[in-house]
Design goal:
Elements: E1 3-11, H1 16-33, E2 37-44, E3 51-58, H2 61-69, H3 71-79, E4 83-93
Helix pairs in contact: 1-3, 2-3
Length: 104
C-alpha cells in the first residue's frame, strides 16, 4: 500500500524561492537515502506567492513514519528561519494514480 504525505509550507514574504530551493535539494536526494521513497510532486501556489505544497509518496507506513523523524524533521530545521509558521502535514492512503506525459 502506497502512502502520501501532503505538506503545506508557508514562507515569510519574499523567502519562498530561497526556502523552496533548499527543500528541492532535499527532495532530490531522497531516492538515494530511502528505499521506501516512491517520488514527489512540488506545487507552487499561484494564489499565495509565499506558499508551497509538496506531495511525497512512500512505500508503507513504517517508511512514512521514519521519514517524519528523519528527512522531514531535517527539512523543517533547514528552512525554519524562512518560514512564517511550521509546515502543516496530512497523510493519505493512495487509492489510485496515473500520470501522463505527452510530447508534441
Amino acid at each position: 500500500m502506497v502512502l502520501a504525505r501532503m505538506s503545506f509550507w508557508y514562507f515569510k514574504k519574499g523567502k519562498r524561492e530561497e526556502g523552496f530551493a533548499e527543500l528541492d535539494k532535499i527532495l532530490n536526494t531522497l531516492a538515494q537515502e530511502s528505499d521506501g521513497f516512491r517520488g514527489y510532486m512540488s506545487l507552487l501556489s499561484s494564489g499565495d506567492p509565499n506558499a508551497v505544497t509538496i506531495l511525497t509518496l512512500w512505500q508503507d507506513e513504517d517508511v512514512l513514519k521514519k521519514s517524519e523523524q528523519g528527512v522531514f524533521a531535517r527539512a523543517s530545521k533547514k528552512v525554519e528561519e524562512s518560514l512564517e509558521k511550521p509546515p502543516r502535514i496530512e497523510n493519505y492512503r493512495v487509492f489510485s494514480t496515473e500520470l501522463f506525459q505527452r510530447t508534441q
